[in-house]
């Protein structure tokens, strides 16, 4: 056995070197994956506190580092088409003057890792967009008059030292009709929040940022 090992020492050494290289490549791949995972931003758009339009839209930062909420938008889909509105700031359609000292004038700002923020009820967000886009009149508080079919919540954030803008969105379906003064039923259409990463989505996001700034 020993003589066989000595006779084939060069070949065995090459095999050992190759196997060692495979092990190092495996660990390097694990380290690269872990680093990329830490650098990848992740924002969740969720529904909380019910399953109707009085429920809350919740943003959760699941990234490794804090993010900065740059823009929040809502797209209303009706039988008449789609309309998109920024809801980054609070509703000013009724001319109400907010208290500038309490910091509640905008939904823009930093969000720490592992933290969540409420953007308000879907009812308020939808009505804000409808009023600012003249889909409904200023005094209307009834969503049933809008003929809603679905809505899309979009969040654009800045993440990392380079400050690149990254978008996330999630669709919600409006179900049934409200009766006896109840709120409309609403539920997420997709299982998870989608990241805007293809070229078309990035161009659409760039147009939004340019239009809102």
UniProtKB/TrEMBL annotation:
Record keywords, A-Z: Membrane, Transmembrane, Transmembrane helix
Keyword Transmembrane applies: yes
Keyword match Transmembrane helix: yes
Full protein name: Uncharacterized protein
Transmembrane regions listed in the UniProt entry: 12-33
Domain of life from the UniProt record: Bacteria
Source organism per UniProt: Salinisphaera japonica YTM-1
């Amino acid at each position: 056995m020993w003589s066989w090992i000595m006779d084939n020492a060069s070949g065995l050494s090459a095999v050992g070197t190759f196997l060692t290289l495979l092990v190092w490549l495996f660990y390097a791949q694990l380290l690269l994956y872990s680093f990329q995972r830490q650098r990848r931003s992740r924002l969740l758009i969720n529904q909380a506190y019910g399953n109707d339009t009085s429920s809350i839209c919740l943003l959760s930062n699941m990234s490794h580092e804090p993010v900065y909420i740059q823009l929040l938008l809502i797209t209303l889909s009706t039988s008449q088409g789609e309309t998109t509105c920024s809801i980054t700031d609070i509703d000013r359609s009724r001319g109400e003057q907010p208290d500038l000292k309490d910091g509640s004038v905008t939904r823009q700002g930093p969000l720490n890792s592992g933290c969540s923020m409420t953007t308000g009820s879907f009812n308020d967000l939808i009505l804000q967009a409808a009023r600012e886009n003249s889909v409904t009149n200023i005094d209307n508080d009834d969503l049933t008059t809008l003929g809603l079919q679905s809505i899309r919540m979009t969040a654009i954030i800045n993440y990392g030292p380079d400050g690149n803008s990254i978008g996330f969105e999630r669709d919600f379906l409006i179900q049934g009709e409200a009766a006896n003064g109840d709120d409309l039923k609403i539920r997420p259409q997709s299982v998870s929040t989608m990241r805007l990463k293809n070229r078309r989505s990035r161009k659409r996001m760039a147009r939004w940022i340019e239009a809102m700034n």
